[in-house]
Amino acid sequence: MTSQSWRVYGYSALITIYLCSVVFFSMNSSPHPNQKNGNVERFAEFANFRNTRFRGFTSRTNIRWCNGLKYLKTDVSSHMITTVPTPQSTIKVMPIDESKNNAEYQITGLTALASFPGSGNTWLRYLLQQATGILTGSVYKDYGLLKTGFPAENVRNNSVLLVKTHEFGPKAWEPFTKVILLVRDPEKAILAEFNRQSGGHIGFAAPDRYKRTKGKYWQQFVLKSLKMWEATNLSWARDFTGSIKVVFYEDLVGNLESTLRGILNFLEFPIDENLLSCTLLRREGVFRRKKRFLNFDPFTASLRAMIREKKLAVYKYLESLK
């Protein structure tokens, strides 16, 4: 009887120790909402969520702006008009003429910055904010971008230089009188968007995601994205009734100064040569995804042939508009 009692006590003690260990390790492995070094992640497929840290960026991200960022002068309600000061750690690489107050410049109408996701929209917004000192808006509210250089997320009026959108169709066009259509090679844009959905704005998809469900998941993603890439570009190019400027991502990479000048002229925004020079020196910023080479080709021969066919047809039409 005594031995049975000791056996019961022994089992009880082991179970108690086990349960305490589980609770202890769970508390220490689960990051607290206010924990500075915690890496909280909700849904792997979505890059935008409320949290103190965002995939692809860190809380220490500090952009060196060429000048303080401002909204444009406008007649929208005063609570929308604020000044975003340049961080104290910013070091100007050359003298900036502070007497030029581009915030007094007022844009007539509203300009869209339209593109298929993964085409370099965020990078171009960064470049334009550097070159003008004026904030850019968006039809979305990306919390990662909101905290890392784009405080005018979800602002869509003429207090901003232009408004980012990936939408198309009559309702999407309605607010705009102009559009800058940013176009990128579909193969690279699709890869960039796949990486963004899995790894945030500057992260990468894990190699095994391409092989998920024996490659069917990736193949379906490519086919769906290619259809959307074609529809986005041709819809704006053919059916939008306002002024349009087509900008190829490859031109931004290969001939940045000339391309930026063309965009600013299209916006009818006065070019500040000092700000433009500063922008060229800081062209990379933190919003361009670094190159990564996979040890396999994610595109099959049939997928690549389909992409090439669509690209040739769309580029041919877009080139006729330039």
Automatic annotation (TrEMBL):
**Organism, as annotated:** Ceratitis capitata
Q: Which residues cross the membrane?
A: 6-27
Q: Extract the GO molecular function terms from the UniProt entry.
A: sulfotransferase activity
Q: Residue limits of the Sulfotransferase domain? A: 114-275
In Pfam terms, one family for this protein is: Sulfotransfer_1
InterPro entries membership? P-loop_NTPase, Sialate-O-sulfotransferase, Sulfotransferase_dom
Annotated keywords: Membrane, Transmembrane, Transmembrane helix
Name of the protein in question: WSCD family member GA21586
The gene it comes from is WSCD
- Give the family from UniProt: Belongs to the WSCD family.
